[in-house]
Amino acid sequence: MTKHSDTVLNYHQRTKHTLQRYAKGPESIDWEDQPDHFRHFSGCEIVSLPLPGTELEVLFTELDTPEVISVKPLTLANIGLLLELAFGLSAWKQYGPSRWSLRCNPSSGNLHPTEVYLISADLENLKAGVYHYVSHDHALEQRCRFSDNLPDGSLYLGFSSIHWREAWKYGERAFRYCQHDIGHALGALRYAAATLGWRIELMAEAADADIAHLLGINRLDEFKALEHESPDLLCRIKIGVDSHQVNESSSDAVDNLLAAVEAGAWAGKADSLKAYHIYKWPVIDEVAIAADKPRTQEDNWQAIATKSLPTACTQTATSLIRQRRSAQQFDGKMAPMAKADFYRILAAVLPSSSTFQTWRWPAKVHLFIFVHRVEGLESGIYALLRNNAALPQLKLDTLTEFTWQAIADELPLYHLHSGDCRQFAKGLSCHQPIASDSAFSLGMVAEFSDTLRDAPWQYRRLFWETGLIGQVLYLEAEAAGYRGTGIGCFFDDSVHELLGFTGEQFQCLYHFTIGKPLDDQRIQTLPAYEHLRNN
Ligand SMILES: Cc1cc2nc3c(=O)[nH]c(=O)nc-3n(C[C@H](O)[C@H](O)[C@H](O)COP(=O)(O)O)c2cc1C
User: Fold this and answer.
1) Which segments of the chain belong to CATH 3.40.109.10?
2) Of 296, 318, 238, nearest in space to 460 by CA
3) Which atom of ligand 1 approaches the CA of 107 most closely?
């Protein structure tokens, strides 16, 4: 165990919510004084993207077989559509004098710590360089202009997190939520890319320091103290299989990009997000340093793709992606969900599904599901194993009375225990009724301490995996006529106790719930980008 692994494990331990106390957070919050949800850089050239809202005919179900979707050309309009469908605004909400925006990607507390950058070769109306995406304006701010074109003509997307934007509300636990949000953002990008017939490649070999350099977020004097960004992920967009870009290795591509930003001309300075920083959470900076990723060699693992399970969804991908929301309340008297819908939703998070073809490693996260209302299934606890190799250890480490009875031909789904678990599902999710009034809720349990032992940065990757699963659940819930909500607030060790886990071999990292939503009629929904149309 390295010193950094210890720091990460200690962080994880101290940021657990327990029934006796919540993880350390601010004692009071001034809602009027929230950090700006939209980062702007002053002093940059702005590239406005074509107006958002384009509908494509591609059906959501066609994303199960992305290879049959016609490949859209790499134009500014299509790049704009990619960014909009992944990270753009999806609506405004209004309640009395309060007005807030929602985006295609969800975020804990709607705080959106994830920032998105584009690195592009010369394209029509887009000069080669590094750009920051501003979802509110649906525009790109040019941070760096390359002196030469990129040798491979590729398009890259980079993600970073402003930890402090999340910590403003959630204190020390915020680092976890930022990682969940990165996983969701990756999922959102994958669905958006697939809609255009594009694919994404995770450039997982890159060091965090490389990503910081490429995105210009290591230029600390251009950011206000405490409002800096931490590097997370770099992806390459693949457009058409015969493109020459496909052949360049990820490490070579990163070296070429580093040379381009080194020789490039940088512009702009990040505007302040907030006037005052009352609470400070140094433990977040400590864990961020301990979980910093070096350059690594990575496998190119991929599960064998299997056919998705049927769905009645006939919606287009563009409309389904834009309608995704978190349910705030569920109808606890809902008719049970059809078993076929339940199975389809679960099959979509398996490594053999189309979304997880993007994920380059064997699954390390499994679902422990509290079934409340599913036709033909007894209420109780079930497990979906996303990697069957974990079965012997999970059997050993969970309660001896669990039956571990395989119940479906289509899925590695196991029955563990029968009984009404609504009360404890709600109790364990910080007493939130969305965990009990749903068709089912679940905990995502990760293979934890062994994963982190010599690679503490894998802590973040585990959370990304849970966020990616969460994004699939959000969209599949919509496709089945239901709605989902990510649940970051839960009592960690009470969940472990209920399932029988002791020690740190397995840890629950994220909860999720899916049911029939009840809308709050007092809240008005307004179009996403009316403010651009009126300009
Ligand atoms: C990582 C994560 C954790 C979340 N935790 C909770 C939660 O504990 N309770 C809840 O009601 N909503 C939770 N949400 C839902 C967010 O509040 C929601 O995504 C945000 O308000 C934006 O709304 P939207 O998802 O409708 O776009 C969570 C979302 C994410 C991504």
Assistant:
1) 35-290, 326-515
2) 296
3) 31
